[in-house]
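Transposon Ty3-I Gag-Pol polyprotein, Vitis vinifera. Tokens?
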Amino acid sequence: MIIDGGSSLNIASQELVEKLNLKTERHPNPFRVAWVNDTSIPVSFRCLVTFLFGKDFEESVWCEVLPIKVSHILLGRPWLFDRKVQHDGYENTYALIHNGRKKILRPMKEVPPIKKSDENAQPKRTDKEYPANARKILDDFSDLWPVELPNELPPMRDIQHAIDLIPGASLPNLPAYRMNPTEHAELKRQVDELLTKGFIRESLSPCGVPAY
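Tokens:
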């Protein structure tokens, strides 16, 4: 949204009206608007646009519908005059009375650009200092998270767990998702590594499907 004291119109962009499916009506007094490049376009429709300033300042303004690109809504001198808006050029603020209370509209703060992530970026290692009591616990149980996984399965437990199927239930048998060559090569590498270590074995399930 732009507040422009140099504009003689309140304008809603045609793109905004179409995307929000706002209701328009024929302009009671059609006219033409001249652009700075000496061209002119007809103003045939207008629209009542309702919007919010902040959380509790709701405003409804009649706007001419024009194909502008600079902003979705442009509030010009008609709105400034109707609302008796006072402009502070030094602070670039607009003050007006709304429901008996003074409201001050301030410009938006500049949003820093979003940096594009690097797909090949490597995580940075940090030497984090832990409290003394936490450091002792980490040292006592250091074998729980080794740097390299052992090439063997953990020892057998006294109690083994299994997933019991519901009698008569049908197993899911859906086609697998396709992969690109890079993903397929990485999947094959990981599966071959797990097979070599004995962590997994070939599936005997009737619903097993290869990965494509």
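Residues 181-197 form the longest helix (17 residues).
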